[in-house]
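cron nightly-structures :: item 1 of 1
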Amino acid sequence: MGWSDRKGLVARLGTCGGWAFALEHRSDEGMDRVTLRAVSPGTEAVVYLNAGAPPRWFLYAEDGRVVGDFEPGVEAAQLGGEDPGRLVPALQEAGLLLPDGTSAPDADGEDGILVMGERRSGLTLPRDAVEHGTLAAVGFAPFQPARPPLLEET
């Protein structure tokens, strides 16, 4: 049993090639659009969700906007975000979309998404550090619903 199995939701943190990264175990906190908008002003943020089973998801934010997002295997017309057309050339180059905007036959594979992310953003992860190294970590507090304010007695 790993540390994150005992302590709850955890993100492992690091840097590589001018990017900061967070690897989440059993969590999808990084996909929160409010968070993406908050961390991307003046820069870019890329999120790739792969929980080992569908759905897989890719989000790209830039300068406070979620530019595009998609689940592998969708067509260009089904891309989400504020300017999803910006992702189309990278998706075509990575073989995830055909020139006519339809999904490529094997577009649901992980390799295409990783290739696209690397080509679009130059984003890579330090494989040795991720698999065998020690990375900083942060734990997420369990979600607590907001309590209504206490009523004052008059």
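cron nightly-structures :: done
The beta strands are 10-16, 19-25, 44-50, 56-62, 65-70, 136-139.
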